[in-house]
C-alpha cells in the first residue's frame, strides 16, 4: 500500500495543476477496510476482510464535469487521472445546459475522526466468532427455534480530500454494526422470524462499544419467543386505524419519505432515470405543510453516532445542522455546492460517494426527527385502539416519493392503552404528506436512537450509501393497514 | 484492459505458489466503467472508473476463510492470503465445505467487442446530443445513462483450475418527461457490441411514450388485465431469481420452489431457462469457483424443473454445481444471471386487440418483497402506463401500486409475445417477451 506521503503528493499534484479551461478540481483518496463476520446456525457463513485503496479526481472545465478514478495512489497515476477527468469534462461541455457553478466555501483545512472507545479491528476475530456463537446458543434455548443468523460488521474509512481552492481535509470514520435473526420454521409456508435490534442489524458510527451497548445477549429470550409466537399469529385485519411505529420503522419512514424527496439533485431531475424525482419542488420551500406541527426534521452530519455522521462531506463542506422541516413546514433541502448554488443558498454538506471509485452525489447524512415527550409505554397507554408495528420487513415508494407501502416483522394490537394480540406481516400504506400530517405524538428523547441504513441505493452506476435516521416511536392517525391485494 | 490474460494468470499462479493454505482459490476481477449521465437534456455526470481486485479463498486444516484486496503487488496479495490464513485459524473446520474443484477450461464465448471497449466520452456525448435535440423538438426533456464497461475475470485454484474471460457491455437507458403535463416515457437498450446498440432508436421510444402519456387520468385500484412490456416481465423474473431459483434457499427449504420440483407452479405456457450461452448476449461461461456454467431449465411448461447451484449448495441438496457461484465474499448463495423466458406467438397488436379493458405497463419502480413466501412483490408502475379499451390504447393513466404474487400471476398468462427483448438489471440479463396477464392486482393509485 502506498504511504500517506504518496497520497498527499498526489493530492497536491492534482489540485495545483493548471490546465486551459480548468476552473476547479478536487482529489479524494479513500482507504477502506471492512470486516464482516456472519454465522448461520452457529456456523461461519461469511467471514471476510476487504481492503481497498484508490482515488478519484473531479474536474470542472468550461462549466462541465469530468471524473476519473483509479486504484492505488501513485502520484503519476493521479496526474493521468486528472488528464482523463479533463478530457471527459471537455466531452461533457459539448452538451451542457447552464455552466455548473459552486456555492461559496471557505476552503477547509482540518481533520475529523469518529470517537471510538474500543477499536473494533483490535478485537480478535476469535472473540467475535465466540460471541456470535453464544448468541446462537442463547436463541436456541427457546423451543421451536430452527435457525439463527448472527452478524457483526465493521468498517474503517480513511479519507483525504484536496481541492484547487485550497481545501485539505483528512478523516477517519469508523462504523460498527451487529444483529441477529431467530427463525421458527414449521414448514416452508409456516415461518416466524424476528430480528434484533432491527432487520439487517443496527449500525452506527463508533467502535465495538456499540456492539456491547446493544445487549444482544440479553435480548435473545424475547427475540426467540416472538419468532415462535409469530408462527401461529394471524395476519393483521385490514382497515384504517391508529398506528404507532417503533423507532426503527419511523427511521425507515423518514429515510424514504423525507430524506430522499429532499435530496436537491433529484428535486432538480438529476436522478430521474433511476431513483426518480420528488414531489417537493423548490417553489414549495417555506410553504409546504409537510407534516403536523410536531414534525421537526434536521439534517445533522455532526450528530455523533449516525452512519451519516462525519466531519466534512466529499466536497469538503464542514458538517453542520440544517433544519429541513420546521413545525411541519418544508424549509430546506439536502444539497451539494452545485445544487445549492442553483437554489441560491449554500451547501448543506450532503455530497458523498460510496467510495473512491464513485462520483459524490447528494446523499442523506444523519437525518433527525426531533423527539417529543414520554416513553413508548406512555404512548401506547395514551392510545385507545390501534396497532404497534416494529422492525422493517418490506418497503417500497413511488418514484416521486409520494405513495408508499411499508411492512413490519411484527405488530401488536393496542386496545384500551394496552398491547394485545400479536400480528404477523403487518403492512401499511399511505401518501407522504397525508401521513406526516397525521403524526400526532412522538415519544421522547429517552426513546431516541439514530438507526443505521447501511444499504441505501442511488445513482447510476449504483452506489450503496450508509445513512442514519434519528427517531423515537411515533403515532399516526387514519393509516391504511393490512392491504396487500 | 489493464492486464492481459498472460499477465493475470502469471500474477495469480505466482501467488498460488506462495500460499500457505492446503487449498487456495484466487479470483481476479477487473473493471473499467465509462458512464455518461444526462438530465434536463444535458450531460451532468461523466466518468471513467477502473479497479482490479483479487479475492482469496484459502483452506487450511478444513478451515475456510476469505479476504480481498485491490493491492495487486505480490506484497498486497500475500497480505490478503495471510489475512485469510489468520481468519481461518480462529474458525472450526467447515464440515459443509465441499472442497475446491478441478474444472476443465470453460468454452469461449463471444462477449468482448472492441467497439464497446474503445468507446469514448465524445462518442457517448454525440449520441446523447442527437436524442436531446429530438426531445427538445417534442418539448420534452431526457435523462439517462450511456454506459460502456469492460471486465476481465480469472479464477485459478490449487486444484489446477485456470479460467479467463473478458466481456464488454453497453447500456443505454433514457427517461423522457414533460413535468407540467406529467408525461413520462422510458426505454432501455443493451448489447455486448456497442455497434449493435441503436441509442437514437431507444431514445425515440422514450420520447414517444412521454408525448403519449401527457395528462394521465386516475384509475381506481382493482384487479386488471395487464400487458407487461418485456422490461416489466424482466423485473418480475429478476425477483424469482432470488426467491425461487437460488440453490441456497432451495436447499434450506425456504425457497419458493423448495419441495416443488416436478410440480406445477405456473401456467402450462411458461418456460424459464437459465441460459449463459444465449446468442446475442452470452454471459460468463464459468462461475466464481471456476466451474463451467450449465444451461438449467428452471420451469418447463409450468412445471418446476430445477434451481441453480454452486458447489456448497449442490452438496447440501445432493446435486451437482451448475456453475452459478457468486464471489466467495458473498453469502447470498448461487444466482441465475441469464434468465430467458420462451416466446409465444402474439404480437403486441394482437395482445391489445384481444383486451376489452386493461392496462399497458412499461415497467415497475421499487419492486420489493411484500410476502417472500408467496413470491409476492409490491411496486408502482412508471414511465408510461396506459389504459386499454376495446382493443386499443385509449389514454394514459396515473401510476398504480401493484402487489403481484409472481408465480400466481404467471398462472394467469393469456398471451405471450413472439418478440423478446434484452432487459439488464443489476448484474443480471433477462431475455423476455411481453405478457398479457389477467387479474393482476393493484392496491392504490400513487396519488392516494
Can you offer a commentary on this structure?
The complex is a heterodimer of chains A (485) and B (448). Chain A is α+β, with helices and mostly antiparallel strands and 485 residues long. Chain A has two domains: 4-231, 2-Layer Sandwich (PmbA/TldD fold), CATH 3.30.2290.10; 239-481, no CATH class. Chain A contains ten helices and 23 strands. Chain A has helices at residues 4-15, 75-92, 125-139, 209-213, 216-231, 247-259, 264-267, 337-343, 376-381, 432-437, and strands at 22-40, 43-61, 64-71, 109-113, 147-163, 168-187, 190-196, 202-205, 239-245, 297-299, 322-326, 329-330, 351-352, 361-362, 366-369, 385-397, 403-415, 418-424, 427-431, 439-442, 449-458, 463-471, 474-481. In chain A, the strands form four sheets. In chain A, strands 1, 2, 3, 4, 5, 6, 7 and 8 form an eight-stranded mixed sheet that branches. Chain A has a six-stranded mixed sheet with strand order 12-11-10-15-22-21, with helices on one face. In chain A, strands 9-16-17-19-23 form a five-stranded mixed barrel. In chain A, strand 21 (449-458) and strand 22 form a beta hairpin. In chain A, helix 1 packs parallel to helix 2 (75-92) and helix 3 runs parallel beside helix 5. The longest helix of chain A is centred in the N-terminal third of the chain and has 18 residues, at 75-92. Chain A starts with a helix and ends with a strand. By secondary structure, chain B is of the alpha+beta class. Chain B folds into two domains: 5-127 and 143-171, PmbA/TldD fold; 216-448, no CATH class. Chain B has ten helices and 17 strands. Chain B has helices at residues 5-18, 74-89, 114-117, 121-137, 199-212, 230-243, 247-251, 311-316, 348-353, 406-409, and strands at residues 23-39, 42-60, 63-69, 141-157, 162-178, 183-191, 223-228, 272-274, 296-300, 303-304, 338-341, 357-371, 376-389, 392-396, 400-402, 413-425, 428-445. In chain B, the strands form two sheets. In chain B, strands 3-2-1-4-5-6 form a six-stranded antiparallel sheet. In chain B, strands 7-12-13-15-17 form a five-stranded mixed barrel. In chain B, a hairpin with a 2-residue loop joins strand 16 (413-425) and strand 17 (428-445). In chain B, helix 4 packs parallel to helix 5 (199-212). Chain B is globular and about 70 Å long. The mean pLDDT of chain B is 95. Strand 3 (64-71) of chain A pairs parallel with strand 2 (42-60) of chain B, so a sheet runs across the interface.
